[in-house]
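Practice record 12: protein with HAX.
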Amino acid sequence: MATLKETLAKKVPALRDEIKAFVKAHADKKISDVSVAQAYGGMRGVKALVCDTSVVPPDKGLIIRGKPVAELKNELPEAVFYLLVTGEMPDKAAVEALTKDLKARSKVPDYVWSVLETMPKDSHPMVMFSLGILAMEKESVFRKKYTEGMKKTDYWNPTLEDCLNLIAKLPTLAAGIYRMRFNKGARIEPDPNMDWAGDFARMLGVEDKTGEFANLMRLYMVLHSDHEGGNVSAHTCHCVGSALSDPYYAVSAGLNGLAGPLHGLANQECLRWVIMVKEKFGGVPTDDQLRQFAWDTLNSGQVIPGYGHAVLRVTDPRFAAFTEFGRRVCKDDDLFQIVDKVYNVIPGVLKEHGKAKDPWPNVDAASGCLLYHFGITEFEYYTVLFGVSRAMGMCSQLIVSRALGEAIERPKSVTTEWMKQAVKG
Ligand code: HAX
């Protein structure tokens, strides 16, 4: 058994040397060209970032450190975090040690609750979540060590400490926000004997006689954990972290990007759309009714939430994992049946519509109806769950960046006038 920190400490020096030598040997080799369309079009496809925690091949979907996400769906999120950070799958004892370590760090300072209690009652839960993390910045070990004076080669160590503290506290913080924001009663304290995601499920206070809600939370936390480096939340976190802002600043910033409707907020939008379908047709519609409803959405200038992706060009394997769970646990649920039917109808509609490059469902298309089934009916909260999970990916990317001593981000921007001159040339 080697703890996460021991494994990382063993790997970091060799990894740093390997990358240094690689860059020195190939410094001038070109890996990407940039077109005018890419510069104005969200830099889609430009290869200018390095992220070793995961890749998303358009025809396969998420692969974490060489393992397709479908192979990880029965693992605990703690094991996946260990894998993300170190590139190695931990043994059972190492997972247990990490769970224990996280539980020992899981208390949220009282001043955070005081800050959140002063917020307007109708604040978005993502604002509360992001602010709660930012409020905890004074706990940063990285900032303290940096202020005292620290060698660059040591940066990864306090970054890891901050990330472990942060990840440990996120379920407590997120569950407390759920109970506060939606008047669910007093906060439920962490249980030191439970796993990270199972305890999160318990602290939310959702009734769970079968234990399947805890299983859903474990699956949810694994599936949303990482999605390479260029998506808005990961890239924002990386960019802010590259200025050596500590993980509290960087993760809070990344979550503010996750809160956008084209990114993580799509899961709340998606369920809203499915419920509109159910209300309009008084239950599960026919294929023709659903097709017409989808066209009405598109013709009114809106997107079909949960469908399309900037990188993927197949059904998202994370969607497939959620629908497999739904078929096992709630196949007769009306909303789940609509989600299943939407999958049969929407890709055809989007193909006919002819705009979306990817007509297939992404991760957000199925998760909401499962949460709703277990009684989490407050859509506005869904992105917070996504955020708790995605913090694992953002943190692992930050730890690796600090271990490699990556530079501050500073790409060159140009003016439209410069572009006009450049295309003439
Ligand atoms: N419904 C309708 N139109 C869509 C569409 C959808 N689901 N997906 C893409 N399009 C449209 C785009 O709006 C764009 O139209 P314009 O040319 O008029 O601007 C056109 O098709 C081309 O877009 P694209 O290249 O296929 O897609 P992008 O890389 O620009 O955007 C998005 C990817 C995910 C933002 C997009 O597919 C979308 O808006 N989907 C719906 C929202 C959604 O599900 N977001 C969550 C994505 C997963 C995620 O990050 N979760 O966090």
